[in-house]
Amino acid sequence: MVEFESDAMRRFPVPEYDELPSDLRERIDEETERAGFTPNVFAGFAYKPSHFRAFFDYHDALVEDTALDREEVEMIIVAVSGVNHCYYCNVAHGALARIYAEDPTLADQLVANYRTADVSDERLVMLDVAVKLTERPTEVSEADFEHLREAGYSEEAIWDIGAVTAFFNLSNRMAMFADMRPNDEFHTLGREPRE
Amino acid sequence: MVEFESDAMRRFPVPEYDELPSDLRERIDEETERAGFTPNVFAGFAYKPSHFRAFFDYHDALVEDTALDREEVEMIIVAVSGVNHCYYCNVAHGALARIYAEDPTLADQLVANYRTADVSDERLVMLDVAVKLTERPTEVSEADFEHLREAGYSEEAIWDIGAVTAFFNLSNRMAMFADMRPNDEFHTLGREPRE
Amino acid sequence: MVEFESDAMRRFPVPEYDELPSDLRERIDEETERAGFTPNVFAGFAYKPSHFRAFFDYHDALVEDTALDREEVEMIIVAVSGVNHCYYCNVAHGALARIYAEDPTLADQLVANYRTADVSDERLVMLDVAVKLTERPTEVSEADFEHLREAGYSEEAIWDIGAVTAFFNLSNRMAMFADMRPNDEFHTLGREPRE
Amino acid sequence: MVEFESDAMRRFPVPEYDELPSDLRERIDEETERAGFTPNVFAGFAYKPSHFRAFFDYHDALVEDTALDREEVEMIIVAVSGVNHCYYCNVAHGALARIYAEDPTLADQLVANYRTADVSDERLVMLDVAVKLTERPTEVSEADFEHLREAGYSEEAIWDIGAVTAFFNLSNRMAMFADMRPNDEFHTLGREPRE
Amino acid sequence: MVEFESDAMRRFPVPEYDELPSDLRERIDEETERAGFTPNVFAGFAYKPSHFRAFFDYHDALVEDTALDREEVEMIIVAVSGVNHCYYCNVAHGALARIYAEDPTLADQLVANYRTADVSDERLVMLDVAVKLTERPTEVSEADFEHLREAGYSEEAIWDIGAVTAFFNLSNRMAMFADMRPNDEFHTLGREPRE
Amino acid sequence: MVEFESDAMRRFPVPEYDELPSDLRERIDEETERAGFTPNVFAGFAYKPSHFRAFFDYHDALVEDTALDREEVEMIIVAVSGVNHCYYCNVAHGALARIYAEDPTLADQLVANYRTADVSDERLVMLDVAVKLTERPTEVSEADFEHLREAGYSEEAIWDIGAVTAFFNLSNRMAMFADMRPNDEFHTLGREPRE
């Protein structure tokens, strides 16, 4: 039985799970089963059901219909959240980055400075463009696209790099605006050393 | 019969309308009828149908289920796009801001510097927060929420201010990444003087 | 018979045309005849006649004794005003850029992000340097001069690029400081589609 | 007999004094007599006589027809040049600030950080606004005008504060663009200790 | 028996422990005993023994002769390292912050955005000043000192806040310059939940 | 007999020389003899003897055990202090830069914009890296190290460039935090023209 953490978000009231429309409860149950706990972003967006649906549908499209590896998606998210200084996304997606990349230190590298991350040269180009689109979008140019193509990214993968980056510029701002707080679980998930 | 402008977007190929899934064509037809032309953002997002659906569903939720006036929504969009320097959104939503606010010069004010805009003091507070959340999201604080409440915005309206701002931080970046180009019509719509 | 708009400038009192020194009235009459209306910047600078003379003499030198095309001058002005976020200059010189370049959408491109403007590669180099001199003047280097020469600009043209840029860093700040407001006419001038 | 320093400016050829129009030579002679040497900015602007005339006429209007003390004018110039990082103006106007304020250390304070300068609270308000108009002109607001009025500045003096600031945003950029070099004399003028 | 990690630092060769002067080995042994492993910063600074001595003596003075609580010192360090984006210090001092404050989530809050940290109002004022001194040192003013005094900090404690902040602006830059890498242990230390 | 200037530092009380521990007085006497006056930074750090020792030991290690020329050390310091806008260090180390480089105008160039300084191409590369490490430390990369090696700097010299830069990021912040004021002597030292 799902119960939202009362501290899931600090600037808006956290709704009651029981009073949510059934489609929201269904989506929440599914995530809770998968993760073993209910990530606080679900409690946060449940404040406004129409936005909950739109947000998670977009999110799901980005991770389900993509030319990128899931670990690439999470790398982009953490690098973007790091430069935007989003506490919720650093921690929640930091956990996912550790799990999908099977690398217990990767997330702390990406949060601090993606240039220090132990990733391939190809993925470094990907992160260069994601961070540029985040911080200085006016300067994204044809040369960046050329670098991505040279690194082996397909046209669709390049679209997806832009799309994940753009979406987490939304996501970071919603989490920061509402002051969403990551569940304690996220801080430690995926930190066990590689064998 | 809809035909996409070949120059709708420069960094990805513009798809053929005829080859799109029927739900996309339906949404595009509806918009084309309403506007009298097909805004290029529809041609752009049609590159990837799953993202098209997610993007416009989110957009529609923001303008249909909101505690803000439609002109407030468009004011936020143009102020945010102005500081992000997004050509497509400045021009396309500039037109909508002129139309909904029935003010032929408002959009040029908002694009340049929202502080020069002829809007009420209450709406200036709204724009202050939207631009802060765009440019310096780490600094959004309880004091900003207090200012919004004092200006008369309800709790839900405050959520919506954050949500529109966040969404157009996505939107601006997708338009800039793909180099979407506004239709010629948007440059002149709503510029006829008030009577 | 000239009459100044009472809303020409908001932070200083707009003077009476009739009470101005005759040389100012002459310059204003001349402009009014040419344009069909009196641009508000004339009303603004008339606050202090000695500055009016200095400002318009400098302006006139820049457009009359120049190795640049007039449309290049206006392109620089709008690109510079765009990054400085000057409402008056974006709109008033946006109109001039549209007229001289015979391009109804150019100004909106330059205001948003000059990198999206439909201009030749040579003029893009010119705008690169103008915007760099505006935003990061310490970084202007010999390499920028080399790029300008390779793009075909003569030594005198390069001086003029610097001079127009510098002057509109003055102009933008005076307009923003005094809160000058563009005449309604400027918003629509030159927007009719090319044939 | 005037002779220009060959190193007066590095990015454009320094003209021959003898070949200049007589009105330029007259203005240069006058300055040379007053200062005891020819400031390099005269050699620099002589590259283009029409700009020379416009530049010095504007400059002269600012220092001759003003509601500010001359030392206030020079304080603004050095504070503005300090944040713009202009070598020529820091040094040449630093000398003038020392001389007019009769203070051998003032200029080094203003170049580094005007907030450390030994000036009255009133003049600190003046410098606050000058530096804000230089660095963040979009944010200049009615509150800044209120602060200036409370500090005792008249309406015309406030206009002049804006005008001097704006002009040196031009001046700094011309000097930096052309790489003008201050005469050796400026580095030491006015450094003798107060009695 | 101490052995340095070969990956302790990437831009300079990691020295051999055995070949270090005895006073360095002594300091390293002491730390190794205390921590249970040798923090990589010791391996890094051992590259140049005279700098090793100076660095750790300064560090030790800051934590041994201080009017601040040790947890306050570590809070400042992590907040400063977060805005400077220093991977090594985020992680190594993040561990210390968790341990001294007995709070498993504090460090991730401070790294992301100190304003989200669960700290007292008094400590928030302390962090405000530390981050301001890091990012915008010209703007530190008497008002900041007043806020610190009102928050109950003694004159010496205020000096120490400045001193820790200043030292970690050195420390962050040395770690980033040399590309020092935190030991794996630091990533997980102090993450066990409070009882 | 040493006496501290009462205006050596404005935000903390200047201690009495006579009441200082003897090792501090010894270090101060030595400097006073060498310089002919007591630099105010000694009066400032004497506020807290443990920090005085740590600060000057670190400083002395940097200038005594170094692969750089002393004039290179002072060039870095003034370039770094210039971008950090530190009044004390601009002036005090500006004097040292003039003296060690035997160049009366060098310091004013470095304070304004190191790119205008009359230094060799090799030293310009050194200053490029020092300023980048100061302003944008996340962006320092292997390419910067390559440029330094190509300019002839040894591995140890490169470490020293990083170390001096890092230390003066501490130093600048302590001087700015405490509002230390340079002695009058520093403003004029080394300004006599070269023969």
Automatic annotation (TrEMBL), chains A, B, C, D, E, F:
Segments forming domain Carboxymuconolactone decarboxylase-like: 49-98
GO-annotated molecular function: peroxiredoxin activity
Keywords: Oxidoreductase, Peroxidase
The name this protein goes by in its record: Uncharacterized peroxidase-related enzyme
Source organism per UniProt: Halopelagius inordinatus
Upper classification of the organism: Archaea, Methanobacteriati, Methanobacteriota, Stenosarchaea group, Halobacteria
